[in-house]
Amino acid sequence: MALSLTIAAGCTHRSYTAKAPAQPPLEQPSSPGATAPSAIAGGYVEEGVASWYGVPFDGHRTSDGEIYNMHQFTAAHRTLPFGSIVSVTNLDNGKRTDVRINDRGPFVADRVIDLSLSAAEAIGMVGPGTAKVRLEMVRGPANPQTGFFGVQVGAFETQTSAELLRDRLEARYTPVAIATYYSPKGKFYRVRVGRFSTEDAARQFARQLHSSDQFTTFVVRLDD
C-alpha cells in the first residue's frame, strides 16, 4: 500500500440491481452495498448482476488488445486476470456457460460482468438485458485476488477535467494516474488512485474514499 493518507472508499459491497440494455451505456457510478468476491477452498466465487454488450463494441479492440467478437464466448470483468475462464450461471433459470475474460468492465452501477452476445444467449438473458448470476473460476491463477489493484474515482471526456481531479488528489494521495480508454463513442480519461497488492486492500481504500470524499468508486486491476 503506497498511499500517503487514508481516504474513504466506496464500493466494496454492492447490491447489483441495475438494469442493463443490450448495449451498455458508458461509465456510470456504482453504489455501495453488495457481496464482494471470495476466494475459498472451492475457488473464486462471486454473485451479482450480469449485463451484455454487442454493437457498437463488436470489432473494436478489447482491454487485452484483441479484437472483440460478440459471437465468441468472452466477457469483461473489472478485476479478474485476462485469460481466466469463468463459469457463469443464470440463477433465475439455471443455465450455465463458460467465458474467457478479455476485457475490462462493466463500469456501470451494480454489475459484476459484461458478457458477449453469444454468452448472454447461452444463459437466456439477451431479452431481459440483465440476470442475477454466480461466477466461479474454472481456470486461472490460484488466487485471482492478488496482483495490483487501484481505485477508479472518475472518467472524463476531456483530458483537462481528468488532470484537474488528478492534481487535486495528488495533494493527499499517491500514486494518482490517468488511464486512457478508447470507446466506440470516443476517448475517455479514467482517474485512478492507489496501487495495492490485494483486491481486499483496494476495496477497503475504496470504502474510505467514498465515505470521506463521496467519490463513486470502482476497484480495478492495474494491468500495466
Describe the structure in your own words.
A 6-stranded mixed beta barrel has the order 2-6-3-5-4-7. A 4-stranded antiparallel sheet has the order 9-10-8-11, covered by helices on one side. It folds into 2 domains: 38-139, RlpA-like domain (Barwin-like endoglucanases, Beta Barrel), CATH 2.40.40.10; 146-221, Alpha-Beta Plaits. The protein is globular. It is built from 3 helices and 11 strands, in the order ββββββαββαββαβ. Helix content is 15%, strand content 36%. Strand 4 (85-90) and strand 5 (96-103) form a beta hairpin. The chain is an alpha+beta fold.
Task: Lay out the secondary structure.
Elements: E1 38-40, E2 43-52, E3 74-76, E4 85-90, E5 96-103, E6 111-115, H1 117-122, E7 131-139, E8 146-156, H2 159-170, E9 176-183, E10 186-198, H3 199-213, E11 218-221
Parallel strand pairs: 2-6, 3-5
Antiparallel strand pairs: 1-2, 2-7, 3-6, 4-5, 4-7, 8-10, 8-11, 9-10
Features:
15% helix; 3 helices; 224 residues; Barwin-like endoglucanases
Strand proportion, as a percent range, falls in 35-45%
Note the main sheet.
Answer: 6 strands, mixed, barrel
Cross-sheet strand order for the largest sheet: 2-6-3-5-4-7
Roughly what percent helix? Answer: 10-25%
Number of structurally distinct domains: 2
From the spread of the alpha carbons, the general shape counts as globular
Kindly provide the name of the CATH class of the largest domain: Mainly Beta
- CA-atom Rg in angstroms: 17 Å
CATH-defined fold name of the largest domain? Barwin-like endoglucanases
Low-confidence stretches: 1-34
Give me the CATH architecture of the largest domain, please: Beta Barrel
Number of helices: 3
Count of individual beta strands = 11
Order of helix and strand elements from N to C terminus: EEEEEEHEEHEEHE
Distance between the termini: 17 Å
Structural class: alpha+beta
